[in-house]
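User: Fold this; tokens only.

Assistant: Input:
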Amino acid sequence: MIILDGKTLAQEIKTEVKEQVATLTKKPGLTCILVEGNPASDTYVRNKQRACEECDIISKLIRLNNGVSQTELENVIDAENKDENVSAILLQLPLPDGLDEEKAIGKISPNKDADGLTNENMGKLFNKNSALAPCTPTGIIKLLDKYNVQIQGKLAVVVGRSKLVGQSIAHLLLQRNATVVMCHSKTENLQEITSKADILVVAIGKAKYITADFVKTGAVVIDVGMDRVDGKLCGDVDFESVKEKCSMITPVPGGVGPLTVACLMENTYKLAKEQQEL
């Protein structure tokens, strides 16, 4: 069994981004908008700020209280769209109840959309016409390539259908000629489906939900989950039971998480480069 080391690959990506940033006439600027209320989001944002320092990207954090209105949130996004020093905008998800994620994301200018989630950028992704894809799925593909995992012709099962991960990674795998099955909370006989997967991607937000019984012998398992059990970080996959059955697996932490942050830096650079060329 091989542990897929996302941390080392993430460092390689950030080193390359820093070199690319040095070729620009102006430093890129990334704005993270965080609506308070989710402790995990605080951790993510801190990691992104540290990565910006490593890559010589200007980092700006806007914290909004948990009672912020939809209009107030959208006004903040509008202001960042107009700021010429801001190359990329990231709205930290999930938002608290009462706020409309789709509407808020839709307010981000497509040419500043760091996670590629606006309708325009998702449309380009689905039509194979995008140089920029959501950060987590991009990182997953980079990791599979790093370890020479064959994607073409393989059965890939994706558990979780969010735009941020599930839908996007499904399309990226399809573009690499995998046969893709997408599962979700309403899927019947989930175990029967996942146990046939050559590549299993899990992003459901349920700690240690996927056990060895869900996994095919020799499968490649990508755990996107970030959960806490008894104060300890873990994924959606029960690592200890699954590692004995699969051929490759991502750990939590140290797997997909660092790659998400590194690919955010890469997307910020790409957006800044495109803006400066225009």
